[in-house]
Each structure stands twice: as structure tokens, then as C-alpha cells.
User: Fold these one by one.
Assistant:
Number 1:
Amino acid sequence: MRRRIEKYRRGRHIQTDPAADYNVGCILLQSPVFFRRDEWIPVPDWPMQAVQGKRFSTDDEAGRRLWQEVSVRLQARPVNIAEPELVADARRFGQPQTVLPRVGQGAFRVIVTDVYRRQCALTNSHVLHVLDAAHIRPYAEGGSHNPSNGLLLRQDIHTLFDRGYMTVSPDYRVEVSRRLRDEFDNGKEYYALQGRPILLPENPVFRPSAEQLIWHNENRFKS
């Protein structure tokens, strides 16, 4: 892979060393829409060799025209309640329903997983299959998909966090509710985490928002 991308790095005054440990970035597409081939729009002045950075602004005539073309196609597109094969199976699965997607949920999950280096913020567990990107303030209750409203949590920790038996203080320490012991007569494993500092993203921009942590402490945590 490094050998293949070296040709794109040449000519940019960057020292090319196939053994160098440089970062390889990516761009996430959120909620893409795909047009049928007969709806494709000719793109003006797009260099065939472009690999990134080419864009059109609606301040320019070409950009405005492209956006208008896209808007017309989106407005004319019917709302799909279910795929044809699912409608055919409605008797087995019940009547199709319109579902509003959680826009940005996929990108939120990818970013939170990455910034926490694939480790549970509270337990440091590396088992990726049991790690969830959890919202501090639920999306349905006014929370956002901003990574600062997220924590990467092991699934059992995620459940306890959502139900208010665990929280994180604004100074990034674990708090475990005494009601976990009172109501279930157990929780020794979780009480061992009491007061422990959580794992934080290296970039401060992605660290949990104090405002959202305070919200969780005041509205979810069972003190």
C-alpha cells in the first residue's frame, strides 16, 4: 500500500521514504445518495488525475448549476418505505413502516471508536466486538453526534451508563452508584472502577464535553 501511494506524494516537496511512518487519511461520506445512471450529471472541468481537493462552490456558476441539478433530482425522488422484496414478505414481517434514520450515527461510531484507540474508556478493554460508541446525552433527548458527546464503552458498561448506575464526572473520573449494590446486591467488579480516571482521546477536541457530562450526572446518574 505504501508503494502505491508514494506516487501521489511525489512532487509535493515531501520526502518520500517507503519505510516512513506517516499518516494515511480518509474522508467519511455521511448519508450518501446514489443516482441512477440516467440521472448522472456531467461534471465540468474535472481533471482525470485528481485524487482529492477538487470541489465546486455555489458562489460560482458551475457550482450553482450542479447544486440545482442535484436538488431537482432529490425533490423528484419518491420516499422509499421499503424495498420491493420486503413488501412482498410483509405477511411474514408485518406492515412496512417509515423509519427516520439517525443521520450521522455511522460517522459518530467510526470517529469515537478511532479517537479512543479501540479501547473502552472505563475498562481499557480492547475487545472491539463488545465495544459501543455511546452517547453521553442521548440523541433522542437533545444530544448530538459530535464525538465530544461520546464515549467508547464495553457493552455491559454502556448498559449501566445508560441506566444511570455509572457516570463520568466532569474531571473525567468514574462514578458508580451505590444503588447498584442496593438494588442488585452485587457489582463488586464495577465498584473497583470508582474514582478511576478514564481513557481520554489524545486530541482535546474529541474529549467528553463537560456540559454533557454534567447533564448525565444530573439527569441520569442514580446517586
Note: The longest helix spans residues 61-76.
Number 2:
Amino acid sequence: MRPRPYDRRPGQTLAFLPEPDIDILAETLVAFANSDGGTIVIGVDEDGKMTGAVYADEVEAALRAAGRQCRPPVEARWHQAAAKDDLAFAIVVARSPELHSLADGRVLVRAGTENRPLSGDQIRQLAATKSTGEFEAEIAPGAQREDLDDEIVTEFLEKWQERQHREWKRSIDDLLKQVGALDDAGHPTIAGVLLFARHPQAFLPQSGLTFVKFVGTEPRGESGQPGYGRREEISGHLARIIQRTWEVVGEEMRVGAVVKGLEREEKTEYPVSAVREALVNAVAHRDYRLGGRRIEVRMFTDRLEIVSPGGLPGFITVDNIVEEHFSRNPRLVAGLYQWGYIEELGLGVDLMIEEMVRAGHQPPDFRDTPYSFTVTLKNRREREPAPAWTRTMNERQAKALAYVQETGRITNREYRDLCPDVSSETLRLDLVDLVEQGVLLKIGAKKGTYYIFK
């Protein structure tokens, strides 16, 4: 077996091409430029194995030809990604402030492992978002290089090296420039201040977080008057805000227990992963241009609300939030990924839904306005928690398992009704995969077949 040049799988910011296919390369260049940027590795198959059949002159010629299909041209740089006997080449594409299309007029974005074309309304929404510029890349007014905390930067460097599985051999400031924390002249950017400054709120007062716990289901105190049981103003760099807020929420969450056999298992009021993802998403994706308002975490007896200033970015809506991905702050998202707060780009909402349904709760409620986005987690269990399943499932399979959890079984026809726009063969293979994973059990044969939890 040939070695893998990358431990990561293809996804939101990584694509593998076994050979330099010009059309696919052009589509991926446009999709990455319109989304969060990314890396295209040529000479690697979908399993991450090097094909050993690609050469530098082929890559260079394909990149030039693909670039001629992009309107306007996409800025990209390429380098050799593996040496010795086999060659692979990495093409690095930055997120672009411009809207890019192909010569045939299609505008594509990256959605997981796919390059997805946008509709007319989505193109207009994306164009309007890009025209506002990227606030996180601007120089932070009044900030100097010495305002960044060297201890925090050193910790980030260690996390970066762990993630990348390689040592950073250049200066620390070169790394800060690469991740967008410093501009080319060495001035801290908004992203740099938020990720690494000792006191980010001195430059961006709105970048903190407010936690409030109420004693009932309404924003009132014990006497029925406006009030709260606990209030915390949480500040610091973004990693600290996430960590401290999680500690506070953990202190206030009710914890129960069930006994299975001889084992005692603790059950938190809300699934830990769902709360964590909602919190990280709020910190990573809020609109930091909006002054005068911080992220708010409101804890009631029946629900947890996480309110992020700024509506949904780009072409994202409540209806397509599961399928689509677009970051308002790609540098902050990439930084938090390196810290380890984001496990896989683009999967936060999917994980929230999966964990809530798995624990027997309602799915999260999403509410979008022009100036805020709210995620509400409700703590009332509607049914017993579902059996554990792997996170390698797709959204269709998650729907199928939620249906089985609610009704006790599912047939092929019922699955087609849940996913009417998907071919019968694809849905059949979805169910076969869940059976092979040991999640579902197939009962009956032919038209009498149905599936239950194993």
C-alpha cells in the first residue's frame, strides 16, 4: 500500500484529484475561492493514496488551462506535496473577496466534498456578502505586535504542529502572517487580536460573551421581576472564551444518572457535544463588525439559548443550513480548527442535530434575523435515547435513524418518501451501509423488507 500524503480526508477545504482533469480543477478552483479557500492535491486518489503518475509540467499546464475557465481568474499557488518515488502536488487557493464563476456562467461553492452550483437568489446573496469585504482581515486600529500574547501564540504553534504532523521551521511571525493574524507589514489584524491578544476587548469590546441563568422559563428573577440567578461577563481571546463559557455552562447544567447492569452512567441536561458545537459556532461565525452587543448564552429551566450577533452569512438560510457551508470569518474558523475546537470543517450543525436527536431531545431550533442568529436547545426528552451510531453517516441516513427512533421501523418506500429527490439505488445502499455498520437489522425479504435498530 502506498503511503498517504495527508491524514485528513477530502472535505470542506481539501480535495483529491488522481490526475489533473482540467474541468474538475476549474470547478474546484472556483468553489474554493467562493467559499473558505482550500487545497487541491493532484496525484492522490479518493482514499488518499498517491497514484505516482503525475508530473510537474502536467500540473502547471492543467492549472493554466483551468485558470482560463475562471471569471475573474482565481489566485492560486502550487508546490510539490510529496517526494521520493511518487509525486503529488498541492494547489493552494485562498478565499477570494470577489465572486468567481466558470466560463459557462456557473457559480460554485464548496459543500463538504462537492462543488455545488448556486441558484440565482443564492448568487445574489453571496455577491452582496462579498461586496462588504472581510472585516477579520482588516488591521485592528491601535493594536501593535506586542499586544499579542507570546504564551498564547506558543501554545497555538504547538497545536498547529500537532494538527499538521510537521514542525514549523520558520519564524513565529511568518506563521502568524500565514494564518492571517498579521498583515504583510507585521500589523495585527482583527483575526489576530481575537485569537492571540492579551486583552482583545480593549480593541473590540463587543468580542466578549455574556452568560445569564434565569430561575424559570422567562427572563425574570424569583420574585417575578426582571432578574437572573447568575450572570457572568466572559472575556479574553476566543479559545479562552469558549473554554470558560463551557465551564460555566457545565457548572449550571443538571446531571442525572441511570444504571445499566452494574454500571452507573451520568446523563447531562443537554448533550455535551451539542452545547459545545453551538457555542463554538457562535464564537466563530458572529459578525464582529456589530458593536454594542456580545454573544449571549441564556440558560432557562427548559432550554438553552445561544444568541450570536449578525444574521446568517452569505447564501446560508435556516432551510439550507445543514447542506450548505459558508464562513463569515474563515481565518477565525481555521484558527479554532488548529486549536482543536473545531474537529471537521462544515459539520458543526450536523453534529448538533445528531446529538440532540440521539439523546431523545427535539432537534435544535434555529432562528435567523438580520442582526442575530439564535440556536435553542430544549432539554425535554421526547423519547428514549437512540442507540449509538457512527458519525460517518450522511444526512439522509440521519433522517432514516430519526424515523426509526420515532416509529420503530422503516421500509424502503418510507425512506424514499423521506428523500424523494434521491435515487432508489442510492437509498438502498444507504440502508445496506447502516446494516453493515451494525446500526440497523434487516427483517424480511423483497417487498416485505423493513429495518429496525439492532
Note: The longest strand covers residues 76-82.
